[in-house]
Amino acid sequence: MQLDLARIQFAFTTINHFFFVPVTIGLAFLTALLQTAWHRSGRDEYLRLTRFFGTLLVINIAIGVVTGLVQEFEFGMNWGAWSRLVGNIFGAPLAMEGLAAFFLESTFLGLWLFGWGRLPRRVHLLTIWAVSAGSLLSAAFILAANSWMQHPVGYTMVNGKPVLNDIWAVFTNPVFVWGYAKVVLASLTTGAVVMLAVSAWQLRHGGDRGVFTRSARLALVVLVPAILFTMLVGDELGVIEARYQPMKIAAAEAQWTTCQPCSFSLFQIGGGNNDQTPTQIIAIPHLLSLLATNSWNGKVVGMTPLQQQYSKQYGPGNYVPNVFIQYWGMRVMAYLAVLVLLIGLWGLWLVRRRAVATSRVFLWVAVWGAVLPFLMNTAGWFLTESGRQPWIVQGIMLTKNGISPTVSVTWLWTSLIGFILLYGTLGTVDLLLMLRYSRKQLPAPRAGADVDTPLPAVQY
After folding, report:
1. How far apart are alpha carbons 364 and 53 in whole angstroms?
2. In terms of domains, do 97 and 209 share one?
3. pLDDT in tens, 420-440
4. Is 135 exposed, middle or buried (CB count within 10 Å of its CB: 0-12, 13-18, 19+)?
5. pTM, rounded to two decimals
6. 111 with 151, same domain?
7. 213: domain range?
8. Of 249, 256, 321, 374, which has the maximum CB count within 10 A?
9. Helices (H), 97-173
10. Residue 261 and residue 205 share a domain
11. CA distances for 223 relative to 35, 179, 189, 191, 213, angstroms
12. Has residue 116 been placed in a domain?
């Protein structure tokens, strides 16, 4: 019971925090692009858009920071055995994130917020790019720590405990390199979809057509290549994971037996942990071999032989993750990515025809499409983290051995309920604020002489 509650609690807090991370990374980059466009062109539309979307960025950062603080307490309170074993390794990139990336991001965010009209334009422009760089660095350090748990590298065992001896190996870990690239691209996708949705709502409800057509166009120009590269990088990440975590990839296809070549099923019935004979519907020949090995006739080892191999290597136990989560996590992520790509291509076609602001159907789809990247990112998180089970650190420590021995069921229930209430409140506040400020009218254009006078960076 303690193990299940601790896992549910950490999954709940992490998923909620990860709603904010890609928005921060994506919107920071897009806001920096808008301010750069204003700096280079001097056009008032870009200044107004910078302040408008900067408001949404600040709201997201403020709420997102709070949601991330809880996890560090969970490491020590719920996962004490894991912290004692690998804290010396896992703590290094986390310390770098706090001392370098977070302070970089927060310091320059303050300078950007209060520097309007006080800092020289070029210096002020650099502050928003520094905010964007800080968000990217923060994600890099955290992903490096997580990737080490997926594929431990750069360590030596001393008295049964892993000790870090090569920090460079942690940051060149292939799981990190490809996983980080995917997270950055998915974040750009998320930020672009959010900007497109807000722009579409404004265009549907009488917002400034000339201004919000520009932000919609920018969002689409970023969105299409971002989602395309997300899919390509995700394919390569699958090859890397098939090499180091073959059970994860086999579970993602509900592949119990070894196959060569291997088909990819678009849909199937059965195939879960208690049903090893799935009925595949619309199976695409060779596709799984390509996704998992980059080879037309590549071999994918099934879960049954892998279970036998791990039982001999690590001792008796169940080494098969939740197949239902893996199978559908993979498909939800992939299918939604295709849907986002189609929306983006549709939008670019309308931009070319100069009809993006007048297509009521597209604008309606773009508004509701805002939920797609969040579902896509969450499915990807489930695929990555659930697929590692039953390991908390692949090949080194089982999840059941990582929990604090003294943590009580009462404490876990109490804290879980408290977090549900807290995160529910924070999520509601964030949603209401984002909706309120995304629906506000743009401030009126300012005269050229007034542009450099002090003005709050966000709308009130």
Report:
1. 20
2. yes
3. 998 889 889 888 988 888 888
4. buried
5. 0.90
6. yes
7. 2-245+322-439
8. 249
9. 103-114, 121-150, 167-171
10. no
11. 18, 19, 5, 8, 15
12. yes
